[in-house]
Amino acid sequence: MVYELKDVGVRINGKDILQSVSCTLQKGRWISVIGQAGAGKSTFAQVITGLTPFCTGEYTHNGQSLPGDRRGKRTAVPQAGYVFQFPEQQIFETTVYKELAFALKVKGAAPDKLDEAVKSVMGQLGLPESLLQQNPLQLSGGLKRLVAIASVLIAEPELLILDEPTAGLDPLSRIALLKKLQAWQREKRRTVLFISHQIEDVAEYSDEVMIFTQGRLLAHLEVNELFLRQSKLLEQAGLPLPEPVQLLRWMEAASGRSLEPASCREEDILRLVRPVWQSRGLHHGG
């Protein structure tokens, strides 16, 4: 599945929300979208799914133009799933099983297929089957979040939009959720569009990063290229460096050495920095 925008613009109530956005989203990539509030991140994601009409430009899905009317409204992109902020607020069924099975039941899936799909997605997100007959609205906040996300994943979307999916979660729950989503994405070879203001999460899980500023796409780069070699782009967009990369730069300045980690991920940076920190030369002030 390849999604391609060419010079796409969105204008709402006389205001340009997106301007001349061109990009290509390839299958099987975790692509993060970052930028300050109002930069156009969510609007971009909604254009990709066909939820928001655009005024100018062209959008193709697997080489075919997305059909639309004269006002720019497009047909929803097939096989796209959208996880909004606080997705648990969209739960409406009386049991976890009914909540998870709803989308497939509407499509006419057979009962045995429903059972198989529900058990599979529960396993992927680490949800115990003992929850299936419970009311999802009576679960803890973290479990409700997982059930809501599972109700999107069960349809096995080719493209998964994650719009601040960890909002309101504590750090441990946030990490646990992102690891589960990454495992699902890699196993299924799906495309993920991840909107987040947590720059450390972006550095940790992304293959590529898109930076938006004032409705324009400032850059679309491989994650290591951005954070390790072209980090000045973050400054242009008013965004900070991830804390592990800040530590790396501080250690370079303190040791007088140029350090080249395997990636911008925390584990790789700490593996490189730790022996430098522990070295006698640094301990004794060089």
UniProtKB/TrEMBL annotation:
- Single GO molecular-function term? ATP binding
Classify the protein's membrane topology as the record does: Peripheral membrane protein
**Tagged with keyword Flavoprotein:** no
Q: Record keywords: Nucleus included?
A: no
- Ranges for domain ABC transporter come to 3-239
What superkingdom does the record give?
A: Bacteria
Its main localization is membrane
Where in or outside the cell it occurs: the entry states: Cell membrane
Query: InterPro entries recorded for this chain?
Result: AAA+_ATPase, ABC_transporter-like_ATP-bd, ABC_transpr_CbiO/EcfA_su, ECF_ABC_transporter_ATP-bd, P-loop_NTPase
What keywords appear on the UniProt entry?
ATP-binding, Cell membrane, Membrane, Nucleotide-binding, Translocase, Transport
Q: Do you know which SUPFAM superfamilies this protein is assigned to?
A: P-loop containing nucleoside triphosphate hydrolases
Task: Report the Pfam families cross-referenced here.
Answer: ABC_tran
Q: Which family does it belong to?
A: Belongs to the ABC transporter superfamily.
The name under which this protein is listed is ATP-binding cassette domain-containing protein
Q: What species does this protein belong to? A: Paenibacillus tritici
